[in-house]
Design goal:
By secondary structure, the protein is α/β, with parallel strands linked by helices. The chain has helices spanning 21-34, 59-69, 81-85, 91-101, 113-122, 126-132, 166-174, 185-194; strands at residues 8-14, 38-43, 76-79, 106-112, 134-138, 155-157. A six-stranded parallel β-sheet has the order 3-2-1-4-5-6, with helices on both faces. The structure holds adenosine-5'-triphosphate (ATP). Pathway: Cofactor biosynthesis; NAD(+) biosynthesis.
């Protein structure tokens, strides 16, 4: 009788304000190197570590932009459970929910080097996160990461660093400067037609 292996599911959480090529390349590198069958882009409702520092674009708009980013990317989907749940978005709650829904899936949490460096110290209930998912770290320019801060079974993905951040795009877009080289055509089109960052700080 054939033995069916658990489905390998990646979760990639973020504010995605806006989503960009760094996000896409990070998910692609993680998916191919870890052998993920699916990657869920989990859009934070209230990114509590950021929302006290600046005005964050409404969650529904960020979700729509991620949909644009993922157009034509097979195996990558938007997951808006944190928006439907409301309130501050905690990855531990999200992992518990997904684990309850899909107890047979093997869960992998994809994080950039910068987030990986602080998650054990600053995220809510890191013990739950480390228990329910394997951490997959992707390289990010400027990110330094002592390996001792993460569980020993964490996976470090090789990727050509993509020097892009959402803040960089917000700054360029708000000044009316070009940013098309930093994200996909569909996202550029969405931002430009809706004027998402017009007047943004
Ligand atoms: P901001 O500039 O507003 O702080 P950001 O570009 O860091 O935003 P987020 O949506 O906060 O984007 O990031 C979500 C996840 O994607 C995090 O784990 C982050 O480390 C990772 N990430 C973001 N940009 C890159 C990149 N260029 N390369 C690799 N990982 C990235």
């Amino acid at each position: 009788m054939p033995v069916s292996l658990p489905t390998k599911v990646g979760l990639f959480g973020g504010t995605f304000d806006p989503p960009h090529l760094g996000h896409l390349r990070a998910a692609q590198a993680a998916a191919s190197q870890v052998g993920l069958e699916e990657v869920l882009f989990v859009v934070a409702n209230d990114p509590w570590q950021k929302s006290d520092q600046r005005v964050v674009t409404p969650a529904a708009v960020r979700r729509d932009m991620v949909e644009q980013l993922l157009e034509g990317q097979s195996g990558f989907t938007v997951d808006d459970r944190e928006i439907r749940r409301g309130g501050p978005s905690y990855t531990a709650d999200t992992l518990e929910e997904i684990h309850r829904e899909r107890p047979d899936a093997d869960l992998f949490l994809i994080v950039g080097q910068d987030s990986a460096a602080t998650m054990a110290a600053t995220w809510q209930r890191p013990d739950v996160i480390f228990d329910l998912a394997t951490v997959v770290v992707v390289t990010r320019p400027g990110g330094a990461l002592p390996k001792s801060v993460l569980p020993s079974d964490s996976i470090y993905v090789e990727m050509n660093p993509v020097d892009v951040s959402s803040s960089q795009i917000r700054n360029l877009a708000s000044r009316g400067e070009p940013f098309a080289h930093l994200t996909t055509d569909a996202v550029v089109q969405f931002i430009s037609t809706r004027g998402v960052y017009v007047g943004a700080q």
